[in-house]
């Protein structure tokens, strides 16, 4: 998230930008915010749940500067940052646990899952923080995620973010994916880079 202040001498002009997300996504995020406020007993906030949802999605989708989003919505940059972190926590809490996701596939009669890693590219950071996010494999900076899908390609689980320099094998071992697959009685379809650690009943590189 960008923290730079707005340009000096800015006239404070506000413009509109299309946010390429579905109404379903906005409603989902707004619903999470609304339920969270109810749990906390919050009586009043500066912005309605729907407004907060749109601001957060704009920051995440367009990487809008916090100060710019704040100025256009009559709140502080610190408030926008708090909104973003709050929504990230709410979304993370909804993510399925790996063991439960695999057992659900097994109960539905599935035999294998598809495993793949992906690097979500990010901007280069300065100093020592830059090196850990650099992927030698992709020759780019980013964060590494592992994803599992069912046989039809439907996403069933995604890992937490890890520095781009991490290998897929290291990330998989950290999440104990092999042990969870064995416990669920499932195999995994993966690329050749994963065959060194995947020892499930039906592993096809």
Query: What gyration radius follows from the Cα positions, in whole Å?
Result: 20 Å
Strands, total number: 6
Could you spell the SSE succession in H and E letters? Answer: HHHHHEHEEEEHHE
- The structure class reads alpha+beta
Q: Percent of residues in helical segments?
A: 40-55%
Domain unit count: 2
Strand content: 15-25%
Ends distance: 38 Å
**What number is the mean pLDDT?**
85
Sheet of most strands: 6 strands, mixed
Supply the number of helical segments. 8
Low-confidence spans: 199-205
Overall spatial form: globular
Secondary structure: elements and pairs:
Blueprint: H1 23-40, H2 49-62, H3 66-72, H4 77-94, H5 98-107, E1 112-121, H6 129-132, E2 134-135, E3 140-149, E4 155-158, E5 162-163, H7 168-174, H8 177-184, E6 187-189
Helix pairs in contact: 1-2, 1-4, 2-4, 3-4, 5-8
């Amino acid at each position: 998230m960008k923290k730079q202040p707005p340009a000096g001498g800015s006239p404070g002009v506000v413009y509109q930008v299309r946010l390429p997300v579905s109404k379903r996504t906005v409603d989902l995020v707004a619903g999470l915010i609304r339920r969270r406020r109810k749990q906390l007993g919050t009586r009043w906030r500066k912005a309605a749940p729907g407004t907060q949802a749109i601001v957060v999605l704009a920051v995440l989708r367009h990487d809008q500067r916090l100060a710019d989003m704040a100025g256009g919505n009559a709140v502080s940059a610190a408030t926008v940052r708090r909104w973003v972190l709050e929504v990230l926590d709410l979304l993370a809490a909804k993510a399925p646990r790996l063991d439960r996701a695999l057992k659900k596939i097994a109960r539905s009669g599935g035999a294998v899952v598809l495993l793949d890693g992906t690097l979500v590219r990010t901007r280069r950071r300065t100093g020592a923080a830059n090196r850990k996010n650099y992927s030698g494999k992709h020759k780019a900076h980013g964060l590494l995620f592992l994803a599992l899908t069912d046989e039809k390609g439907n996403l069933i689980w995604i890992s937490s973010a890890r520095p781009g320099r991490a290998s897929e094998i290291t990330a998989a071992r950290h999440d104990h994916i092999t042990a969870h697959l064995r416990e669920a009685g499932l195999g995994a379809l993966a690329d050749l880079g994963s065959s060194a650690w995947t020892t499930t009943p039906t592993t096809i590189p």
